[in-house]
Design a protein that fits this description.
The protein is mainly alpha-helical. It has one domain. The protein is 72% helix and 0% strand.
């Protein structure tokens, strides 16, 4: 029932966005899409996802898990295929990634899941950091108008950046927070990969905007990326559609982007992910170097490497 409610909410949110921007206006924007810019967006998104897989592999190795880069890339893109097949944004793909990694010889299922969680937390924190720095730079350069909205956005990003060091009221959540902070070594060593992930993800979103006829600079798009990407990862509907477009309308609208163009930008970014998930489907039929299908016990201890 909860799953059906989330799917219905996602569909309703997307329908509300389309109604708000007016279907005819959105149709005209989509009909005028520049295929060359969209192709560039897909290429940038693929590069970003390869760096995402590399970051996850680096974090997993920092936790003492066996995580060959080639296997991690294959697992990551299989996860994207799962995101296309099942509702819930990135949740389905993340579960599959943790399961696949946990099945490798010497690994444990629980540890594989922890690596995926830390990977997502690292990406979220660096995303907020990149948007924060880009926003300050854009404000200083006069690219983004200063005002109450910008101040509130800066405050929100600042809270997100210090959140990992703030104690939580729930004992279970506080324990998870402390365990995550205890793994800062693995996260710090992969920090440069996280930055590259966000640089290319924002570039893909920027190219999608250019394909939709939006004329804003890359710095402004990087500054606006955090809420758009975060809402796209909320487990509503299917593939982040609905929540991502709603965020794009609000955030890009503050930069003067027309609602139909903002919606088209979000839709194109989602379609890019869908295309990659479809293209990666054959990876379910092959195994990358370092992968093994032998079942592992969830209680097994991961091997430690110096």
């Amino acid at each position: 029932m909860k799953l059906a409610a989330r799917i219905a909410l996602g569909i309703a949110l997307l329908a509300a966005v389309v109604w708000y921007v007016e279907p005819r206006s959105l149709a005209r924007s989509l009909a005028a899409i520049d295929a060359r810019w969209f192709a560039a967006a897909v290429a940038a998104s693929v590069i970003s996802n390869v760096f995402s897989a590399a970051r996850w592999a680096a974090i997993a190795r920092g936790l003492g898990l066996i995580a060959p880069l080639g296997a991690a890339v294959a697992m990551y893109f299989r996860g994207m295929t799962m995101n296309v097949l099942l509702p819930g944004a990135t949740v389905s793909g993340d579960l599959l990634r943790g399961y696949q990694l946990g099945r490798l010889p010497g690994n444990a299922l629980v540890a594989g899941g922890v690596s995926v969680l830390l990977d997502r937390l690292s990406g979220l924190w660096v995303l907020c950091g990149c948007s924060f720095v880009a926003l300050l730079g854009a404000l200083a350069a006069g690219v983004v108008p200063a005002g109450k909205e910008s101040a509130l956005y800066i405050a929100g990003l600042a809270v997100a950046l210090v959140a990992p060091w703030l104690p939580l009221p729930s004992a279970r959540a506080e324990k998870a927070r402390r365990e995550a902070l205890a793994s800062t070594g693995a996260l710090t060593r992969s920090l440069w990969l996280s930055v590259l992930v966000q640089v290319f993800s924002a570039m893909a979103l920027w190219f999608c905007a250019r394909a939709a006829g939006v004329e804003i600079g890359y710095a402004a798009m990087l500054a606006a990326a955090a809420p758009i990407f975060i809402m796209g990862a909320v487990p509503l509907g299917w593939g982040g559609f609905g929540a991502r477009e709603a965020a794009a309308v609000v955030v890009l609208g503050a930069l003067g982007v027309a609602p139909e163009q903002a919606t088209a930008t979000g839709l194109l970014y989602g379609v890019s992910a869908v295309l990659q998930g479809i293209a990666a489907a054959p990876l379910f039929l092959v195994r990358a170097a370092g992968e093994d299908d032998r079942p592992r016990s969830s209680g097994a201890s991961p091997s430690r490497r110096s």
